[in-house]
């Protein structure tokens, strides 16, 4: 055996034994003194050991030198991709912003290196690029879709990941394939490619027996919105109603209200808009400006001009206080209702006053009940009311509208009955008020 063959054999044996540091001492001699007699396996072995020891920049340089020996060598193209990922892709958003072109150029290069597979860097690169784009103030849906198009879902792993959550518990995360479906579906909706959006969402719902991060809700949400945009608002309302049994977020009520108003069902639209306004939402009311505008439009259609003006003014003030531009549709509403937006009142004060209006309207449309507090749960956050109709109603103590010393067992109360969206769950008591003895 020649000296060079012996070095190669020793280097390969040490690599297989995972003794990477010792293996490198042999590869260094081979690469620096006998590179003209090295083949693609030698270069790959050297780069492999370097990467295993966290020296990805050096490994990348060896891959670049080795690739011309066999551009189609899959072991090498895969390793080359991972080295590029380590060096150029696995960066913070702040680092990427300093040289976005370099980051995207490296990502493109990874996709030029062979076919995507479960053990290549393509999937990690794709998701990193998409995550980076999603962090931008205006998420570029067209670019996200272009990147999704670089890979087919069956080229991505369908195995969910796992890891610790913020409380130290192990939780399961979406697989790369599930993430691809979620990203593609949202991009198609943002681009108003509604038929394709429905198709992708339905494929995802059919393919995955279990979805993560509420993706089953988001796929159904995007299906409903796409159907509404395609003209079938009645079906969209029905499908959004079904989502409320799982997710009672304000924006679902908002969309239902919008579609009801579009269909001319103004009374129902106002009722739903009030649900949206009272439901928990973002701390910054500026993000609800479209809801307030819608409520103004509904009240205007019902000839309640003064209340309509207050809602449209709230939409204006909420944006002005954030130094946001007033969009054309809001300016049009201001003009249509002859609203003076120069009046000196804060969005917070407007919101506080309108909240009383919303609660009053909601209460007037709800079934009423009377009874007494049956028990309070140990955590003090909820309890049950035994009502005169013979039923028990769950209530949250933060919905009790009276002095706290009256929040006790056997206290007589009146309340509003909130119908459950889930047939398997009992109705709740809200706006609970103590009765005088």
Question: How would you describe this structure to a colleague?
Answer:
- By secondary structure, this protein is an alpha+beta fold.
- Helices cover 56% and strands 10% of the residues.
- It has helices at 3-16, 20-33, 40-52, 56-66, 74-89, 93-98, 100-112, 122-134, 141-148, 176-190, 194-207, 215-229, 233-243, 250-262, 266-278, 289-301, 305-320, 328-336, 347-364, and strands at residues 161-164, 170-173, 368-376, 382-387, 392-396, 412-418, 428-434.
- A five-stranded antiparallel beta sheet has the order 5-4-3-6-7, with no helix packed on it.
- Helix 8 packs parallel to helix 10 and helix 13 (233-243) runs antiparallel to helix 14.
- The radius of gyration is 31 Å and the shape is elongated.
- 34% of the residues are buried.
- The model has no long low-confidence stretch (mean pLDDT 94).
Number of DSSP strand runs: 7
Class by alpha and beta content: alpha+beta
Distance between the termini: 105 Å
Shape: elongated
Give me the number of helical elements. 19
How do the helices and strands line up, and which of them pair or pack?
Blueprint: H1 3-16, H2 20-33, H3 40-52, H4 56-66, H5 74-89, H6 93-98, H7 100-112, H8 122-134, H9 141-148, E1 161-164, E2 170-173, H10 176-190, H11 194-207, H12 215-229, H13 233-243, H14 250-262, H15 266-278, H16 289-301, H17 305-320, H18 328-336, H19 347-364, E3 368-376, E4 382-387, E5 392-396, E6 412-418, E7 428-434
Helix pairs in contact: 1-2, 1-3, 2-3, 3-4, 3-5, 4-5, 5-7, 7-8, 8-9, 8-10, 9-10, 10-11, 10-12, 11-12, 12-13, 13-14, 14-15, 15-16, 15-19, 16-17, 17-19
């Amino acid at each position: 055996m020649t000296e060079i063959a012996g070095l190669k054999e020793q280097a390969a044996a040490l690599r297989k034994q995972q003794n990477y540091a010792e293996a490198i001492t042999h590869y260094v001699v081979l690469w620096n003194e006998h590179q003209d007699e090295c083949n693609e396996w030698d270069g790959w072995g050297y780069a492999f050991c370097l990467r295993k020891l966290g020296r990805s920049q050096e490994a990348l340089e060896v891959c670049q030198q080795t690739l011309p020996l066999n551009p189609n060598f899959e072991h090498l193209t895969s390793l080359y991709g991972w080295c590029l990922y380590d060096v150029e892709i696995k960066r913070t958003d702040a680092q990427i912003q300093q040289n976005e072109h370099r980051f995207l150029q490296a990502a493109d290069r990874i996709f030029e290196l062979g076919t995507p597979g479960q053990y290549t860097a393509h999937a990690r690169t794709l998701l990193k690029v998409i995550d980076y784009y999603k962090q931008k103030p205006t998420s570029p849906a067209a670019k996200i879709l272009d990147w999704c198009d670089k890979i087919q879902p069956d080229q991505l792993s369908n195995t969910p990941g796992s890891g610790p959550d913020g409380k130290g518990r192990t939780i399961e995360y979406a697989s790369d394939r599930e993430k691809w479906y979620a990203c593609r579906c949202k991009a198609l909706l943002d681009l108003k490619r509604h038929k394709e959006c429905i198709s992708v969402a339905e494929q995802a719902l059919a393919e995955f027996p279990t979805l993560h991060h509420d993706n089953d809700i988001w796929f159904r949400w995007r299906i409903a919105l796409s159907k509404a945009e395609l003209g079938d608002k009645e079906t969209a309302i029905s499908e959004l109603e079904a989502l409320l049994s799982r997710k009672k977020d304000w924006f679902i009520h908002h969309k239902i209200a919008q579609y009801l108003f579009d269909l001319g069902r103004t009374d129902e639209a106002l009722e739903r808009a009030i649900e949206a306004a009272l439901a928990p939402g973002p701390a910054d009311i500026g993000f609800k400006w479209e809801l307030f505008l819608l409520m103004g439009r509904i009240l205007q259609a019902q000839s309640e001009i003064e209340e309509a003006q207050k809602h449209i003014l709230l939409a204006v003030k909420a944006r002005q206080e954030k130094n946001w531009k007033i969009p054309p549709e809001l300016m049009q509403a201001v003009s249509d209702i002859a609203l003076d937006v120069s009046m000196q009142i804060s969005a917070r004060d407007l919101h506080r006053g309108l909240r009383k209006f919303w609660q009053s309207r909601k209460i007037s449309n709800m079934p009423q009940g009377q009874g007494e507090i049956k028990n309070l749960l140990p955590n003090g956050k909820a309890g049950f009311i035994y009502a005169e109709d013979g039923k028990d109603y769950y209530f949250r103590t933060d919905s009790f509208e009276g002095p706290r010393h009256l929040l006790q067992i056997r206290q007589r109360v009146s309340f509003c009955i909130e119908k459950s969206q889930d047939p398997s769950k009992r109705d709740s008591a809200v706006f609970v008020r103590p009765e005088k003895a």
